[in-house]
Design brief:
This protein is mostly helical and 247 residues long. Helix 1 packs antiparallel against helix 2, helix 3 crosses helix 4 and helix 4 packs across helix 9.
Amino acid sequence: MATILIIFGIHWYLSLFCQTFYHHRYWSHQMFYMSKGWEKFFFILSYIAQGSSYLSTRTYALMHRMHHAYSDTEKDPHSPRYFITVLGLMWHMKKRFYYYNHHEAELGEEDRKYLHNLPPPTWFERWVSDSWFSRIFWGAIYTIPYILYADVWWIWILLPAQFVICPIQGTIVNWCGHKYGYQNFKNGDDSRNSLWWDIFLLGELFQNNHHYASSRPNFSFKRWEFDPVYPVLFILNKLSIIRFKLS
């Protein structure tokens, strides 16, 4: 059991780091620069970490930019304001992501502007990472430790969570970050800061702070708030792996 819990914990934080670092902060908001070589490295890392629930970076960025532009209105792709349950929001997010991913050409001009500076999907994203073969392959990989080490029946509950780990993380952020917590800023939406020390979601639950200053690499503002990813960004910037944009 302990082995599976450790594996699940590593999977949770590695996939979450890739989502917040690569998909969110780099592609969606382009908070910093990196070379094409490092970009490919973090793409491969994201694919390995996210596995069966890998998210297209282009579609993720489009959907997230629209979320900021239309925050908590009817055009918001994933506002919890219009859903009774978490599962309802999660299913809606899945449908919207599929639509944007496969019907991008049908977007109106008002929404197409949010594709600005986003490159088209690579052949790998189009034919490998977003394929059912890839998702089934990674699902099989996740199952192996449970076959080898599951000594109590209830630990198997974690396996389906690993299959869809990225949508689960995204749903928690959007549900809790727009329903529970406090506000440092009046942004005209429902965004909240759900946790003072946002360890389990790596800073993503500082939604109110982030909606106030969406291009700011550090999601914390108050002295007692802490964004766990920002020190990593600071070190990567010092090592010249990334380069912060000058504000």
